[in-house]
Amino acid sequence: MPAYPNATVSPRTEAAPAAPAAVPAPTTGPASAAPAADGPLPVLGRDVTVPLVTGGHVTYAALDYAASAPALQRVWDDVAAYAPYYGSVHRGAGYLSQLSTDLFESSRATVAAFLGCRPDDQVVFTRSTTDSLNLLAHVLPEGCEVFVFETEHHASLLPWRGARVTYLDAPRTPGQAVRTLERALADREPYGPALVCVTGASNVTGELWPVRELAAAAHAHGARVVLDAAQLAPHHPVDVGDLDVDWVAFSGHKLYAPFGTGVLAGRADWLREAEPYLAGGGASRRVARRADGGVDVDWHTTAARHEAGSPNVIGAYAIASACTALTEAGFDALVARERELITRVREGLADVPEVRVLSLFGDDAPRVGVLSFVVEGWNSSHFAAALSAEYGIGVRDGLFCAHPLVRTLLGGAPQEPGACGAPEAGPGERSLNAIRVSFGAGTPDEHVERFVRAVRELVRDGARWNYRTEDGRCVPDRG
């Protein structure tokens, strides 16, 4: 129960309320009123203008949501409303400490509801998806074998250094992904604890993976499943019970919240039985000196066991606010609008023969608002630089922290090693990189239309500016 039943937090409150207060539910002020169902959600930076090398300014088109989505205005308003009441959590007797403690723990409950967590699941606040998966790697039981497709983001591919890891080849259909996993699990020896790490949506192709089917295959062979939902959660509802996964990990900065906070949510037993991820205050319930000079520690069995130190209360509240905002906006409407944007981008790129969109599962595979492509005759860094400098469009180029996947997808793609911004290749290697465009709930129609028009013009007419390589990046040559 809240410690202070009458508290309110408002962006317009100048002083602490006269009566003790409970943790407020996120509020919506005039600047963050709910938009029409068919329009973008208000986000920070929507009115920012940037200079063009060809002269003048233009409203910035942020089309790099897969790296970091802009924060929702609603989230920013809620954080600003709480900021005057900032206080330490869990161990403070004062008014603001109690308020912040209530806010932190109610944020945990909001995230659990957003993910459809089961009654016994734990929600641990971390720094990011990467941190969440490293935490899970830390708590693996002895002898646990990990199965992971080579198509994963490095956050899912690399944390399992202390375990026996089986890397699975990139599948070319969802059905092949399930069959590949089933064969690998059936062949494992000795039969002991196992974990399967799967993505919900690729950060390279945007394609949706058959999570429910992969989870069923894993459980049929006695393995557990962790879902990397970094790219899925901002675009589609994620329900732990419905998907039947054991854990889910995601990041706030991809879910329209500020940087610095992530979530690992799911089964409590491995988390409860392992040594704390970090040792320190907050993770321990009791610490006492022994007669021999050592120290006895009684660790928490709750999520606090892996949240040592003063937690990022504002970050946790921001994630909870984003979860609330997306739930209230309605995923049905958000998904429907995003599908329209995806169709516009795909049809626009299909009209340019020099463009090849990257895909594992084929052109008709369902996806979120993430597409990667290459352009014949262009180094991808050069193309992305021209989109930014000449059109005010922010995309990403490179290998997207998924090097094995992108190299597989680009295996037969011609590249120009000497082009502006081409990354250095090792002996016998060709220079490989791609362009990624990504968007979501805050993307205006005009940004997508400008992007498609810019691609057509650059392919048809070439860049209007000269570019050079600087520190491995392609940048405008300003003489």
Number of domains: 2
Quick check: average pLDDT? 89
CATH topology of the largest domain: Aspartate Aminotransferase, domain 2
* Tally of DSSP β-strands: 19
Give the radius of gyration.
24 Å
CATH superfamily of the largest domain: Type I PLP-dependent aspartate aminotransferase-like (Major domain)
Oligomer: single chain
**Proportion of residues in β-strands:** 15-25%
The structural class is alpha/beta
Determine and state the CATH class of the largest domain.
Alpha Beta
Main beta-sheet strand count, sense and barrel state: 7 strands, mixed
User: What is the CATH architecture term of the largest domain?
Assistant: 3-Layer(aba) Sandwich
Number of helices: 13
- The rounded distance between the terminal residues' Cα atoms is 65 Å
Query: Could you list the spans in which at least 5 consecutive residues all have pLDDT below 50?
Result: 1-37, 413-418
Q: What overall form do the CA principal axes indicate?
A: globular
How is this structure best summarized?
This protein is α/β, with parallel strands linked by helices and 479 residues long. The chain contains 13 helices and 19 strands. The chain has helices at residues 73-82, 95-114, 129-138, 154-157, 174-186, 211-220, 240-243, 269-273, 313-329, 331-350, 380-391, 403-409, 445-461; strands at residues 49-51, 57-59, 61-62, 122-126, 145-149, 164-168, 194-199, 224-228, 247-251, 262-266, 284-289, 295-299, 355-357, 370-375, 393-394, 396-398, 434-438, 467-470, 473-476.
